[in-house]
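Name: F-actin-capping protein subunit beta
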Amino acid sequence: MTEQQLDCALDLMRRLPPQQIEKNLSDLIDLGGVSSVYLWDLDHGFAGVILIKKAGDGSKKIKGCWDSIHVVEVQEKSSGRTAHYKLTSTVMLWLQTNKTGSGTMNLGGSLTRQMEKDETVSDSSPHIANIGRLVEDMENKIRSTLNEIYFGKTKDIVNGLRSIDAIPDNIKFRQLQRELSQVLTQRQIYLQPEN
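Structure predicted for F-actin-capping protein subunit beta:
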């Protein structure tokens, strides 16, 4: 969503009755899938939860589900021009691949992250826009972490378990490894000074 589209959407939202805010925030954050937003009052601000569920359709022989829960607490500062946002996000992910060459693999897990940030509150940057940006940034960070760390590590493990080399080549390689290890060990013994 571009900055101009976001500004237009926020302008329209300011004109809507208060009971529509949860639905509008849900629509603003939703990037596909199903989402719900619930808000409640606190002594010096408000809190809310944003629930997002995205399910894969099974195309390309990959099924999956992304469930994210974002709990936000907003404490308004005494000046009224800034607010402190505390966001706790949990993503639960499940994937299943079923490909002819590699078979079926299930992968699932969850990841929780927290962040706190002070933001300016104004007509051009109301709470709804600030929360939307925080949630979007958090989802992108979590997606990046899952992609780089978890999927990368899983790929390394799977590649370590599976061998695309023929068995005789693998045996020759292991034999060469043993021979090199023996030569290096012998060399190390000769290089160590005697006491």
